[in-house]
Design goal:
217 residues, alpha/beta, two-stranded parallel sheet, 11% strand, disordered C terminus
């Protein structure tokens, strides 16, 4: 008798469960991801051949625009909240809990302390359009130093509590056309509060030594 051959079927895999997991992961990352705040000014940094990369998190950035105005931006919502609470106690600005919470999620600040309350009351879309005077950083009225000093203390406390892993990396980002005296004021401020290690952000430029080395091969 001839042998009966069973009918063969092509194997199939049920992908329903995998699709569900993929969409759950996608939804999670969309809901938890935070967009990087827009910088208050466009800064065209000078070029250099430096290849040192800055960390993506844990930076305290000092922006200096072509007019010499100074802006300050601190990473970390918990650190910013601790910072504004300390500053509101040391330099009474009349901020309530809601306004301090707004500060913790706001972007770079570029106003004197006495204008911060009004700045926080504005919608975020209007803040970006506002022509601000910058954080005072001159010898007669230097508010930049206390901001940086207290921000570093707040970050250090967060590190001790295990909220963050590292202390702040100080970054100075100035425009190529920024007057040198404005940058010098920022550097003097850092030196006055014993910050002797900081980074200057530049655009990447091709190293001529590497080009010559390639041509000689």
């Amino acid at each position: 008798m001839p042998k009966h051959k069973p009918q063969r079927h092509s194997p199939s895999v049920d992908m329903t469960a995998m699709c569900d997991v993929s969409f759950l992961l996608l939804t999670f990352f969309i809901l938890t991801a935070k967009a990087k705040p827009q910088e208050p000014v466009i800064v065209d940094t000078p070029s250099s051949i430096s290849t040192t990369k800055l960390p993506e998190q844990g930076t305290l950035t000092i922006l200096v625009d072509p007019e010499g105005k100074v802006y300050l931006d601190m990473a970390g919502q918990h650190t910013r909240l601790a910072l504004i609470k300390d500053m509101n106690e040391q330099y009474p600005m009349g901020l309530n809990e809601e306004e301090m919470l707004r500060f913790s999620i706001a972007g770079a600040i570029g106003v004197p302390r006495n204008q911060l309350k009004g700045w926080l009351a504005m919608p975020s879309s209007d803040r970006n359009k506002l022509q601000v005077p910058g954080v005072p950083a001159d010898s007669t009225n230097n508010e930049l130093g206390p901001w940086i000093h207290n921000a570093r203390l707040a970050q250090f406390k967060m590190k001790q509590e295990g909220v963050v892993n590292d202390e702040y990396v100080i970054v100075v980002k100035a425009d190529a056309d920024t007057p040198y005296p404005a940058i010098q004021r920022v550097i003097n401020t850092l030196v006055d509060i014993n910050v002797n290690k900081f980074n200057l952000i530049t655009s990447q430029e091709t190293d001529p030594n590497k080009i010559n080395a390639e041509l000689e091969k």
